[in-house]
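Can't paste images in this forum, so I'm doing it all in text. The chain is below; anyone willing to post the predicted structure tokens underneath?
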Amino acid sequence: MTGSSARRPIPAMLLAAAISLILGYVVLEIVNAGIIAIWETIPKTWTSTPAWYVIGLLLISAVLVYLIRKFVGDAGHSPIGGIKVSSITPREYVGVIMAIVASLWGGIVLGPEVALVATGSMIGGLVAKWMHCSDAKGQKQVVGFGALGALLALFVAPIISGSLKLGGTPSAIEVDQLGWAIAVAIIVAVIVTLARVVAALIARATGSGPHLPILIAAAVIVGASSLIVQSQTGASITFIVTSGEEFITQLPTLTSVSTVIAIIIFKAIAYAVSLGAGFRGGPFFPAMFVGAAVGLLISLALGDSGPSVPAAIVVGVIASLIATAPLKWPIVIILGLVLGLLMGTWTLVPAALIGAIVARLIPRWGDRVIENPKVTAH
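Text version of the structure:
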């Protein structure tokens, strides 16, 4: 074999991916365990979660993130920027992972995916060094495979636990109802994009570096949003705080249109301020929850004339994911297939594909604001 492909450090790439997959899964389980303990197990001791607990934890998170970014390390990047793969040292990793854990355990509306990317990137950098990958291109490839391996934990965990499986999946494709997938995808893409634009405007106004007043204000908004939903609808605060992907399968238990509308509005608000205020975490899982809630809303509002709940939810999830990240067409199609199967059976794949394609076709009119250099300088 000749050419550039011959110089690819394949053994190092595979080793980095394998190690990162294992460690990524461990990191994901630790993060999720903390979230479950803090936001599910402890609140079960109360009839309704008290305001002092919700606001107190979120304020602690804001202060910790500020202190970590200010004095431990600030090698991470704003969640508005999506996922960015770059080699980080173990010392830099400490600050990055501490800020992410402080944000996620504190109830901030961001996801764990960046924690996995950071873990894989660090492992990839170490493996590249151990395997003596001297050229920059080879090192970048090893780091990339490390990040990819860690991200695979996001799929391994749901496959093992079945946490993304939706009940009541139709036994046949709902051909006559697939048209509603287009409407669901458009609505989801618009809502997610609006949230991201608001986040970008917040980040632009604050500039680079952590700002404690902004972090505190965002924490209060997230807490107030969850408490409003709890007091006005009786729904759990877990539908608002944290990224929410673990609760997508619980959404179908909601049958009130007004409750679902409230959850969509306040989750989107909490998501926007979490994205733009300077916390650390991933942007994708909260968007997926918002998309799932929009799908549920359309299904409930239309009743028998609309799509089934599982089909509408899977369309909302895939549309939100595509609206959050600029992806190439092959990846869009693959994600539609994979999520359709992960969340149900083959009968959900056509709806998922329609949602993915429609969301990809919608112009990304918010990118100009989001890509502003002042925004990504966090």
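Confidence is low (pLDDT under 50) at residues 1-6, 373-378. The two ends are 44 Å apart (CA to CA).
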